Amino acid sequence: MQRAEAIDQKIKNKTAGKLAGLVIGLKDVLCHEGHRLQACSRMLEGFVSQFTGTAVQRLLDEDAIVIGRQNCDEFAMGSSNENSAFGAVKHALDEARVPGGSSGGSAVAVMANMCRVSIGSDTGGSVRQPAAFCGVVGLKPTYARISRHGLVAYASSFDCIGIFSKSVRDVACVLEVMAGADEVDSTVSRQPVPAYANVIDTTQSSYRIAYLRDALESDSLQPAVREAVKRQLDVFRAKGWVVEPIALPLNEYVLPTYYILATAEASSNLSRYDGVRYGYRSPAAHDLASLYKKSRAEGFGKEVQRRILLGTYVLSASYYDAYYAQAQKVRRLIRQEIKNVFATYDFLVMPTAPTTAFLRGQHRDNPVEMYLADLFSVQANVAGVPAISIPCGVDESGLPIGLQLVADDFRESELLQFANLALNLQQKTA
Ligand code: GLN
Question: At what angle do helices 326-344 and 254-269 cross, to 10 degrees?
Answer without folding.
Answer: 130
